[in-house]
Design brief:
The protein is mainly alpha-helical and about 90 residues long. It has one domain. It is about 80% helix and about 0% strand. It contains three helices and no strands. The radius of gyration is 33 Å and the shape is rod-shaped.
Amino acid sequence: MAGEPPHRKPDGGDGSADTARSRGQIERDIATTRTAMSATVDALAERLDVRARTSARVSSTLERVRERPGPTVAAGGVLALLSLIIWRRRRR
């Protein structure tokens, strides 16, 4: 407050050397925290971007199907056969 003497340390010094070092350390801590928070926010944004995640998943699935169409065609055939069996049983 106005009119009060500057804060003195118990050793009688004004702490300017300690304050400068502490300020530097605080600034490094703040920079480290900002970097960590930025990475966290980026990771959260990536997780919340459903459209991008879905698009990436579709792309990777299509790549796998193009690389090895045999298992996909077989799985599709089995699914079609099961669907036909279920459909015929329900019609009875």
